[in-house]
Amino acid sequence: MKLLLCKECQDIVRLIDVKRTCKCGKVGGKYTDDLNAIYFGEMAVPIGFANSTLVRAVHNQPKDGMGENFTAFVIPKICSTYKLVLEHEC
Ligand SMILES: [Zn+2]
Question: Structure pTM?
Answer without folding.
Answer: 0.90
